[in-house]
Design a protein that fits this description.
By secondary structure, the chain is mainly α. Helix content is 62%, strand content 4%. It has 21 helices and six strands. A two-stranded antiparallel ribbon has the order 1-2. The chain has a two-stranded parallel ribbon with strand order 3-4. It has a two-stranded antiparallel sheet with strand order 5-6. Strand 1 and strand 2 form a beta hairpin. The two termini are 60 Å apart. The structure holds arginine (ARG). Arginine binds next to helix 7.
Length: 484
């Protein structure tokens, strides 16, 4: 069967369902003013329960806080409040145990919970939605969810930083080529290179923290868009749900998804950092580089080539940044041009959000795994660091310091010496002194001290530089800044 004919079979199913539905009174929660049930297609495009059931925890704790407040304010009786809360707790357990029957026709998590509450406690359930709308409800749930997602990501990023720092500590004097344009540039220490990623993830964490502070305000009580005429106490739900304050404009509160845009922007940036690290892992374990070896736990074989060890985890961590960036684009476009206040377009905020979180989470975990048991090929790194005349800059610096030659001039002299070494097919330190003298007669034997990669890295003692001593200092610093 072709895809085409099976999809037309699917539309036949919709037709059949729609015929049997005709003239049946609507049973939806909002069905009062309708004569018939929605079409099966209407139901399917409208329903979000398949993905927003993930908000059940947030939905139920927010409902409990709301019910408590309603009772405290005498908007419902104390007894009704207790009954509602007891019912909600039971629903929570049912969902946790996988015993809850989610129904597409009940649209979303909010109506699935409320409808079940009615089955359990009867008509009192109908009082829970007093002074509230799904519009402030979903915004509250989603803020709580993102707040939790941020704390999970922060913890994992911190763990990744820790593993990078531990590896850096073991490699403060491991020498490798540092690259610009992916061409050998100057010798650096591997520990120093790893600390660059510690910085990136540190910035990601501070962006997450910042986003978490800004999103942590309480929309509950904004109702549909206008606020409510019931004497609610917004401070009490704010306190109960650990928000810092109630939102101050009910129209903004129900239509604002800035926190989703922000979270996805940060996720995209973080995923790009993950992707750059992954790309380097892929390069480093290629046969051409052979700088590192991933453990068997983080390598995969080929179905045809028996010798292969592939860095699939790194490739996927690199690849998954695509869908995270995609989700960011998607929410930006959903919100662009959307009039105030709530429109159903906003329901499109969730799938990309959830998928991005899941993707980022597994990518960070994979990086933690790869970094934790990677083998470093120090000899190969050292050997590679000598290729490409990586100490030519040290030579130019020496000419400035020892012979008082202006840098521009010393750069040219150094370049001519490199050309000579290339012609003789040797490295800079392998040239005889006479060759140096043939280009600049004042050069003396001391020059050889700065031509070794070991002395080159040792000399880079500027703050934040690559010398083993400085790297050790920055490791201590990083522990204090990020791991305490
Ligand atoms: N499922 C909806 C969403 O995610 C909840 C809000 C529905 N509001 C409404 N006015 N229909 O956005």
């Amino acid at each position: 069967r072709s895809t085409l004919s099976s999809s037309s079979a699917a539309s036949d199913v919709y037709k059949r369902q729609d015929i049997t539905r005709e003239n049946k009174q609507s049973s939806t929660i909002w069905g009062g003013r309708f004569n018939s049930k929605p079409s099966a297609i209407m139901e399917e495009i409208n329903s979000s329960i398949s993905f927003d059931k993930r908000l059940f925890h947030e939905d139920i704790i927010a409902s409990i806080a709301h019910a408590q407040m309603l009772a405290k304010q005498n908007i419902i009786s104390k007894g009704e409040g207790l009954k509602i809360i007891k019912g909600l707790k039971r629903i929570y357990k049912e969902i946790e145990k996988g015993k809850f029957n989610f129904k597409t026709e009940l649209e979303d998590i909010h109506m699935n919970v409320e409808s079940r509450l009615k089955e359990i406690i009867g008509d009192t359930a109908g009082k829970l939605h007093t002074a509230r709308s799904r519009n402030d409800q979903v915004s509250t749930d989603l803020r709580l969810w993102v707040r939790n997602a941020i704390s999970i990501l922060d913890k994992e990023l911190k763990e990744l930083q820790k593993r990078l720092i531990v590896l850096a500590e073991r490699n403060t004097s491991t020498i490798m080529p540092g690259f610009t344009h992916l061409q050998n540039a100057q010798p650096i220490t591997f520990g120093h290179h790893l600390l660059a990623y510690v910085e990136m993830f540190g910035r990601d964490r501070s962006r997450l923290l910042d986003c978490s502070k800004r999103l942590n305000i309480n929309p509950l009580g904004s109702a549909a868009l206008a606020g409510t005429a019931f004497p609610i106490d917004r401070q009490s739900t704010t306190k109960e749900l650990n928000f810092t304050a109630p939102t101050t404009n009910s129209i903004d509160a129900v239509s604002d998804r800035d926190f989703v845009m922000e979270f996805l922007s940060i996720s995209a940036i973080t995923s790009i950092h993950i992707s750059r690290l992954s790309e380097e892992i892929v390069i480093w374990c290629s046969d051409q580089f052979n700088f590192i070896k991933l453990s068997d736990k983080f390598s995969t074989g080929s179905s045809i080539m028996p010798q292969k060890r592939n860095p699939d985890a790194a490739e996927l961590a690199r690849g998954k940044s695509g869908r995270i960036i995609g989700s960011l684009m998607s929410i930006l476009v959903v919100l662009k041009g959307l009039p105030l206040s709530y429109s159903k377009d906003l329901q499109e905020d969730k799938e990309g959000l959830f998928d991005s979180f899941d993707s980022l989470y597994i990518c960070i975990k994979a990086c933690i795994g790869m970094i934790s048991d990677v083998t470093i090929n120090k000899e190969k790194m050292l050997e590679a660091s000598k290729q490409g005349h990586t100490t030519a800059t040290d030579l130019a610096d020496w000419l400035v310091k020892e012979l008082k030659i202006p840098f521009r001039k010393s750069h040219e002299i150094s370049g001519r010496i490199v050309k000579l070494a290339e012609k003789n097919n040797c490295l800079l330190h392998e040239l005889p002194l006479d060759s140096f003298k043939s280009i600049e007669k004042k050069i003396n034997n001391n020059v050889f001290k700065v031509l070794s990669v070991e002395n080159s890295v040792k000399s880079k003692t500027s703050y934040g530089g690559t010398s083993p001593k400085e790297v050790l200092k920055q490791i201590k610093n990083a522990r204090r800044r990020f791991l305490k």
